[in-house]
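Appendix B. One record, verbatim.
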Amino acid sequence: MLLADFTFELPPERIAQHPLPERDAARLLILTPGAPLRDGSVREDLSMLLRPGDLLVLNDTKVIPARVFGWKPSGGRVEMLVTELTPAGEALAQARSSKPLKEGGRIETPLGGWHVAEVLGGGRYRFRGDAPVTYEALDRIGRVPLPPYIRGGEEGEGDRERYQTVFARAPGAVAAPTAGLHLTEALLAQLKGQGVHTATVTLHVGLGTFAPIRVENLKEHKMHSERFEIPEATARAIEETRSRGGRVVAVGTTVVRTLESRADGNGGVIPGAGQTDIFITPGHRFGVVDAMLTNFHLPGSTLMLLVAAFAGTEVILAAYRHAIAQEYRFYSYGDAMWLERGEG
């Protein structure tokens, strides 16, 4: 497989720069095997696509205000993107400045001094603050880590609320699980009322979600690793779904990656926590997920390959051509797709 097989031309104006006024007002492109493409909406159609007994699996990670600005003793500005907090209260972060930071250097931040405890390479550092760095502290002084294709990454009014799912619980992500942005508490309550069950996993979306594939031969690509957790209750819920003949429906590619990385070979998952670097490409045999809700993804990205593996490469490419022609909104604040498992 070659990267060129999964690229397409996207007019810049199709990239959504702001969320719609209402979360569930997004359009929904519906793909079901053997049926023509259908244009719908999340609000009107998701409840009809889901059946009583289905299990909707959500990623409950919470986006942290990870962008922090500081200054060197010389006055030079440093922009840091916190990717993880350690149990010792240290911050692992990407940092950009006019010159690389040196071990032992001090950066003044709104939280006090951050000392460069270790140079990790690739622009990554381990910082030790005058006081332990906490998620509560980042909430006070950090900015939302919007992806660069949204207004150059600059936080605007409403982003702190809208670049977060309504079910976010566990802080640790530097990017939102964007398919979940379409769901409202009212819509989830409606689905529950019609017999659709829900369960959660946690996958802390990292910077690697935006990392481009830099090799033409996809077998040479090294996938990024992300932290995940699958509760025992979720594993049981999947087992119960299988026993009643329901489907496992993933809300987003992060849920797909989490569940498929822990597939037990019998339609279920092995609960637990760890790191996953699963790279799903056409030819992957899906062991858990039957259908998914997802946004539109970047050309030639690992997520584009995942949806191609799930629904079929030609099916996905045709769907994307349709979406562009019909002026769907793309990427994080964009519209959504409903996919049922096909042949990748």
